[in-house]
Design a protein that fits this description.
Blueprint: H1 4-8, H2 21-30, H3 34-42, H4 45-57, H5 61-76, H6 94-101, H7 106-120, H8 133-145
Helix pairs in contact: 2-3, 2-4, 4-5, 6-7, 6-8
Length: about 150
C-alpha cells in the first residue's frame, strides 16, 4: 500500500541539499526576522557556535552545511513550527496553507514544517516534490482514516 509520505517524497533535509546555505547561516546568526530568531533559539549551543564561527571567519563550510541540516531536521521533526507571528512576513504557498489547515501530525507535520521553511527561505531550502492542496487534503484524510 502506498502512503501519503510515499507520494510526497521525503521531508527531511539531506546533506548537500541546501542551496544558499551561507545566506541561511548569515540570516539565522543575525536574527534578521522573527522566524530566524525563533529557529536560532531552537538550535543547540554547539550548532549556534558552528554557525557563528563560520559567519565570523568563513571557515569549515562543510561543517556548517552538515550542522544546518542536522539542526533544521531536528527542529522540523520535533513538533509544529508554525506560529503566525513567526511567519507574518512570509508568503505561504497555497499548498502550505492547505496542509496547515489540516493540522497534520506525524510525517505530514514534518512535511508541513519543511514546506514552511521552503516558503520562508526559498533560495536556501529547496521545496521537495508536492501535490496540489486539494490533493493533499484528500490523501491526508485517506491516510488519517487508515490509522497510519
Amino acid at each position: 500500500m502506498i502512503s501519503v509520505v510515499d507520494l510526497l517524497g521525503a521531508s527531511a533535509l539531506a546533506a548537500g541539499e541546501l542551496a544558499d546555505w551561507a545566506g541561511l547561516a548569515t540570516n539565522l546568526t543575525q536574527h534578521q526576522d522573527a522566524l530566524s530568531q525563533f529557529l536560532w533559539s531552537r538550535f543547540s549551543a554547539t550548532g549556534q557556535a558552528v554557525l557563528t564561527n563560520y559567519v565570523g571567519s568563513g571557515a569549515e563550510p562543510e561543517l556548517v552545511q552538515v550542522t544546518l541540516v542536522q539542526e533544521l531536521n531536528g527542529i522540523i521533526s520535533s513538533g509544529p513550527i508554525y506560529q503566525a507571528q513567526h511567519f507574518a512576513s512570509v508568503a505561504l504557498s497555497p499548498e502550505t496553507r492547505g496542509l496547515l489547515a489540516l493540522n497534520p501530525q506525524g510525517d505530514l507535520l514534518i512535511r508541513l514544517n519543511r514546506w514552511l521553511l521552503s516558503d520562508a527561505y526559498p533560495r536556501a531550502v529547496p521545496r521537495p516534490g508536492s501535490l496540489s492542496a486539494s490533493v493533499n487534503q484528500r490523501f491526508y484524510r485517506a491516510f488519517r482514516n487508515t490509522g497510519n
